[in-house]
Amino acid sequence: MAHLSYLVNTLIERRYLITFSADNAVYQFDLSREDDDPNYKVFHFGSVVEEMVTNILGCGEKQPTFPQIPKMINYTVKRQPVSFGSNADNVSDDTVYLTDSTETRPGYVRLKFRLGEMDNLPEHLRSQISKYYLHPESSGKCFVGIRCSIWPNEAREWFERDRPVEWPGEHILQLAKEDDCFLLSRHHPQSDFPESEWQWIFPITERRLALEALSEDQKYCFRVFKLLVDFHTRNLPVKLSTTHLKTIMYTTCEIIAFDLWKLNPGGCLLFLLQRLITCLRMGVISNYFIAANNMINHFTTKQLCALRQRLYAVRVFPVPALVMLVDSHNLFGTCFLDRTLADIERFRKHRDLYRSFFECFLVNFSLCYRAHVLSMYFENAKQILEEAYFVKTEKLATNQSEELDFEQFLLDVTGDEFGDLKGLVVYEIDMVCNSSFSHSLRNSTDFVAFKDILESTDCMEYSEVPVPRDVLDSRYKVLMFLETLTSHLTHQRQYQKAAHFVRCAIKKSMEAIQCSNEEREELQTASNHENLFHTQMTLYNCVLLRLYNDLYNIYKSMGQTELMQEYIADYEVVCLASDYTYHYNRVAKIWQKLGNNARAQELRDQAESIKSSKTSYSSNVSRYSSIDDVD
């Protein structure tokens, strides 16, 4: 279950789930018109305004601008009291309709007019007036409704139902007792009286359950459950509606402990699937409020069998089912799948979740964290580590003696992934998330400020960023740090900043070469210092070659290769001081890009000449069996 929970949270991140707010859904489709009848109102209901309709947003897909159109009930402002039962005796004078549940299925009624004085009409006139209220045909998602202040007797059981975990809670139940319900102009699919049958619905309470009673973790599990069911049954001739799935969800919430939805979402998802399969096998999904109303009794045996077989495969093979869903939307995260599947096999042998955490989960979390940092999704990166920390401290519930708070956990993972750039990454997270993780690094004696490496005018906004103190041990370490910094900024596509710090690194390299030359003049008599000098010069030249090449690639990414005109001559000088022919070819390509084809060809010729001389020397040496034969 731990591996499935990890895969669910990793492959289907909450940021990929697009759900429009209820207020936005109503606002988009509740535009008042001048010719609206003031005696009638519109009430929006259904899964759209309950925020239970979810889209999954994959890579390269555009977020939908508008929500789906919600269902609407048109009802009269004036109260039209409904009396339960078809007997007109002992009802109040203001009663308009009498319910008649004979020859209808549970949850559905027909409405009789209380004719009053019309009973005195002649028989031939009364026979032309229907004794039942015939509703108009519903068009699309618009219905006619009658608002009722009293719930029907068959729904009273919902208030007194046995609930092992006391969901949705006494407070919600008390509020629901004051909620109105509706008679909706919608007949049962197998109704014998489609033009006069009305359905009991409880949209106010349903909206309260979805928006107030469900926790964020429960909503997340339901949305993944719905996505899986919809995806794997999409090509079947029969569909399960959101109402069917909500009913499974709500009845499950009354059974599963509240904390498990966060601790074990994979297990909760499997429970929902198994409960749905069991209901399909029995051919019964009872309405959540009126248990006697079987919402799938109009499904054929063949349809139920097709749904059950498809969902049983999802239940038995949840990981492949999840991967198929994720792969269809090109979601980020499938790159961690192989490591997780391999660890499942190892886990079956050692049964040590703590070991799996460090060998698999933490590695995947760290890689995912790194990817989000480089993509500059710092809030998501922080959330990933929060999930990793939660798994380590809460889900595993180990008896390990180590005490580690989240801040130290974040610093440790950041250090493992980004090395000397630990302080920079933590600073970036602080700036976006309004946190203070870098504060402890600034106060540490193991770190200095970035302004201690570069002049304040060159630091941009990073002057106070913590940098490991050992970076100051040598000029070469400073150059390596700046090179790492520019690579980090390039991966983040912050090309202007990357180019700035490459230029700073080139300047630092030139200063380092000058300092080495001065030190050589002071210590020119010592042979060991001469060897050190040549080593240093080789290192600095290699750094310069990489920096100039990086600078060109950054300018190229910016679409401004002409800026390299300022540095190409210096790049060529460093190139000519080395024997690396591929650098000759690199400089030649840049000259050609800048329009100097003649100089480009000269460098290519020099590169070929160096290659030829090296090849000739190698062939001459190989003719002798030993070095002594040369003489």
Mean pLDDT across residues: 81
Kindly name the structural category.
Answer: alpha+beta
Helix content: 40-55%
Give the low-pLDDT segments. Answer: 27-34, 124-129, 617-631
Total number of beta strands: 12
Over all CA atoms, what is the radius of gyration?
37 Å
- Discrete helix count: 24
Residues in β-strands, percent: 5-15%
What topology, given as strand order, has the largest sheet? 2-4-8-9-10-7-6-5
Q: Give the oligomeric state of the chains in this entry, treating copies of one chain as homo and distinct chains as hetero.
A: single chain
Distance between the termini: 75 Å
User: What would you say the CATH architecture of the largest domain is?
Assistant: Orthogonal Bundle
Q: What can be said about the biggest beta sheet?
A: 8 strands, mixed
What does this 3D model show about the protein?
- By secondary structure, the protein is an alpha+beta fold.
- Helix content is 52%, strand content 8%.
- It is built from 24 helices and 12 strands.
- Strands 2-4-8-9-10-7-6-5 form an 8-stranded mixed β-sheet, with helices on one face.
- Strand 6 and strand 7 form a beta hairpin.
Quick structural overview:
The protein is of the alpha+beta class and 631 residues long. Helices cover 52% and strands 8% of the residues. The longest helix is centred in the last third of the chain and has 32 residues, at 527-558.
Overview features:
single chain, 631 residues, alpha+beta, Poly(a)-polymerase, middle domain, Serine Threonine Protein Phosphatase 5, Tetratricopeptide repeat, 8-stranded mixed sheet, two-stranded antiparallel sheet, 52% helix, disordered C terminus
